[in-house]
Model the fold of this input.
Amino acid sequence: MRKHTYALGGAGLLLSVSMLAIPAQELTGELPDPPEFAAQSEPIFVSVGDIQEFKALPEYHEPDWVTSKYVDAGTLPPVAERLPKEPLVYKTANMPDGIGVYGDTMRHVIGGRPEGWNYIGGQAQGWGGIDIGLSECLTRTGPLFMIKAEELEPLPNLAKGWEWSEDGKQLTMHLVEGAKWSDGDAFDTEDVMFYWDDHIMDPNVSPLNGGTPETFGQGTTLEAIDAYTIKWTFQEAFPTQYLYAMAYGTFCPGPSHILKPEHPKYSDNTYEQYKNAFPPEYMNIPVMGAWVPVEYRPDDIIVMRRNPYYWKVDENGNQLPYLNEMHYRLSTWTDRDVQAVAGSGDFSNLEQAESYVEALRRSAEDSAPARLQFGARTIGYALQMNLSGNGWGEPDDRAQSVRDLNRNLDFRKAVSIALDRQRLGESLVRGPFTAIYPGGLYAGTTYYDKASTVYYPFNLEAANGLLDGLGLADTDANGVRNFPDGGADVEITLLANSDYGTDTNLAEGVMAQLEPLGLRVIANFQSGTARDDMAAAGQFDWQVARQGAELVSVVQGTAALAPTGPRIHTFHRANADGELDLLPFEEELVALVNKFVTTSDNAERADIMKQYQRIFTENVYSVGLTQYPGALIINKRFANIPAGSPIMMFNWAEDNIIRERVFVPEDRQGSYELHPETLPGEPGGAGPV
Ligand code: BQZ
Done:
């Protein structure tokens, strides 16, 4: 069998490119505007202070059965003792339907599966709002979609207040004094420093959602001043940006009194043993969130019961949450839409465009149990090429040669203009939903600027011309281009998440549309966690990715907009020696992102993002595929759902709608509770008590 060669002919290749290259300006074109989409609902814009405050109230309340069954029985302290000195108080004026009543359940359906409860140790809980509900973080950003743009700043949360030093290099934060974990243990700086010292700053641990030292700025330090005060020290002055990184998903401390004894620094455990020390079967894991896991049936359901120590109340002093139980049925993401529309489930982020027509048709009927609330076009997909040329993900010869192609601008341009985005969008759903998306920041979002967006329209002929220019000829006439000098066929693996029809449909669209370009693209469809692990390890040539909040809001996840650190970017990370081989335009993007983080001047920020968008799209940093609006599907019996809450902006809707203050009016409550009038039991115990 003839040994395949993948040589790209090094400098020879590059030289020939410049001579043959089609002038860039000839490949650019006018970017069509997204189709009008009237169904989008608008938020009611307010100030942070209109939503919440921290203060002591004259009296506190809880469900009657908690008082009679637990407090009166002496198995639980009175509610006032379970609450912090100054609980977080949600203001009635900001609650669409006002003060709520206790009772009922929200029935989620999810497509993920729990690996275990060690979020900060790097385990996934199944997504779909589970980890968002369990984890509380120093600040909060989900509800920021309703904050006036000129007052935009993360909401206080476990950090109830903070102040900057004169020179802006130090930030002192005050934790909610007297807040407790759901088993009654005190939440304090020991939990915060355990997360910082033994997770963020420990290279052997990768917390879920990717917190790394760079997330908080090169050289940043954190120290505990006392049990309820921490102090950050930054290299830059007033990097207010990092307050967003202190929200979900990158600064949500875990229960150190439970996790620390298992951490390798304090035990004989290996890091793998520590990560897996709290499997899904472990019930009543202490949380700061509103509900605690009390039952788990594999491939069936996770049931959660109200947290008796939850540290938030309404203005009448009623301890939240209002809902007694949360269900997460373990199914598929598509089934989530189906069940929400049918009324056997209560919530869904309608994010898979293929389900739109049926969901709209069904929910238009008067008898429909659920309503749809469309937001802006913040669901976006891109084809991301692995840009590491120095070994991230340990590529073999074939993969290494693909990486070298990926790092070539003409190659990325060729792939981009060989894709017919109109057809890709319509292959998902017809109608005014999908928009042509060249990549980068999304049209319709705060920092987007059309004039700064370079668009290379569909042009298969020019695409073939570019690859000819790279010396990738089909030397063995099998319809697939070969690497130069009689090399092997150009074969490229395409990683995609098989848990979503949209991801695999787009991937199949890309594979089909690149055949006429003579590239053999091979599907590597992996289920949720497997896909996430392969992507994080760099084990892909290309991937179809649904992008995160950073390209929607810019201020959330900013550091991940470019490889600002060795382990932070989705498609370009460092090799095993920690070396990051940035391309020249990437250096520029890193500099712009770092500048954005330290600039609080809005005009300057807007200008920085214009430069970012131009360099991103001009260099086809990633190949945009499509962009469309998501819709919240929520059962009509739920009250206090904020107007205009998008499914994805600063975070997912499971955070945006503030579930702890969602309620069901008494006369509409269903009898879905599986463990009525029970509370979580001992950590590691059998279940509810
Ligand atoms: C929303 C979200 C809440 C993760 C996950 C999942 C993981 C990714 C992403 C979305 C699911 C739902 O998305 O699709 O609508 O409920 O959970 O966390 O795709 O595989 O790793 O980034 O958020």
User: Anything to note?
Assistant: Residues 127-129, 132, 333, 349, 351, 528, 532, 652, 654 surround galactinol (CB under 6 Å). The CA atoms of residues 377 and 667 lie 36 Å apart.
